Amino acid sequence: MADNPYKLVNEQEGLSETLGVVSGTQGPHAVDVRKLYRDTGVLTYDPGFMSTASCESRITYIDGEAGILEYRGYPIEQLAEQSTYLEVAYLLLYGDLPNRTQLQKFEQLIVYHTMLNETLKNFYDGFHHDAHPMAIMVGVVGSLSAFYHDSLDINDPKHREISAHRLFAKMPTIAAASYKHNISEPIIYPRNELSYCANFLHMMFSTPCEPYEVNPIAEKAINLLFILHADHEQNASTSTVRLAGSSQANPFACIAAGIASLWGPAHGGANEAVLDMLTEIGDVSHIDKYIAKAKDKKDKFRLMGFGHRVYKNFDPRAGILREVCKEVLEKLADNDSPLFELALRLEEIALNDDYFIQRKLYPNVDFYSGIIYRALGIPNNMFTVMFAIGRTIGWVAHWMEMMNDPEQKIGRPRQIYKGSPRREYIPIDKR
Ligand code: CMC
Question: What does the longest C-alpha to C-alpha distance in the chain come to?
Fold first, then answer.
């Protein structure tokens, strides 16, 4: 590839610039345009980053055409089947699978950080009782930087690591507390003898009045969902975390920014939107009407849980979740089976429709996750929060990677200015 460099030629202006190429271990090559503006005065234009690699990374690899997702080289299918979320978290953060001792130590460290500072709990009272849990998450996670001054020197690798552990460990506690506030129940403290996922379920569903036993089927399902959501390279929220962090902002503020970005229905908010959509469709007999709406360019409606910027074949996470969804519904004898049947039928109809075939629109990770969450008793407004818990380790791993990168620079895109040319100020009584 280096022998075949790209050339930018503008004959009118007599400009010719040879551009270098950057290559990874796998995936497409990238044209290196870093010095393009300096050398030629020309910018590149790529809204939405359709063809732009914003950084080098060693964390996650996606081949969207082949439906491949790998964390640190390990296929998602193998991790989903054989690993645990804590092990995957270690892998994402440190680059390799842990041995037994490393894993045990990591688990202890995380458990040690699960509790919230007692004063932080007062923040919840500042939110209206029916505040959306994602709104609470953005505020409370951002406020962590007001509590943990002892580890906020972002130039100290030890501080960075402690902040990473704190964020990862506290996220389920913050999330469950957001839910408890939303339903006006007391906040439940973590029980550190439980696993990461079981602890979350305990904090979500137990009350001070009655004993609560974690259902192992639910624990297993959450473990898998968190593994599948753990990272997805430079998606909108991860890029937001990186961009916020590039200004040397503290990690708690960066992750709060990531949560805000995740909330949108085009990103993590899609899982909540899928359930709303399935409920609105209501019956198989209405599917055709909604497919027609999704295809109508004058209608803003899109099939939620369908399509992906990178996957143009299938989202491997969706395939795994379809099977798990079936299993969970069978085992929990939930009454959401009609919703699952509806989702299956919708998928079948859409996948045979020319509009979806031509645009390579397939179900994504969010298509089935909501049905599983609902079967586990998790309400719709917590779906995106669940995504945020699972994704926190990915955000943190990317933030750590960026902070360790000697080439790291403040993220500062340019623009094509389309506004008014220079004009003179007119005093208000003369306008
Ligand atoms: N329903 C109907 N048409 C669609 C859909 C959809 N869900 N998604 C894309 N299209 C059409 C779109 O109208 C466009 O058609 P045309 O070429 O005729 O103008 C074409 O497909 C390409 O769409 P795009 O918006 O240019 O593609 P994108 O890569 O910018 O957007 C997406 C990707 C995920 C935002 C989009 O597919 C979408 O809005 N999907 C629904 C929301 C959703 O499920 N989001 C979750 C994404 S996966 C989890 C995550 O990342 O958080």
Answer: 79
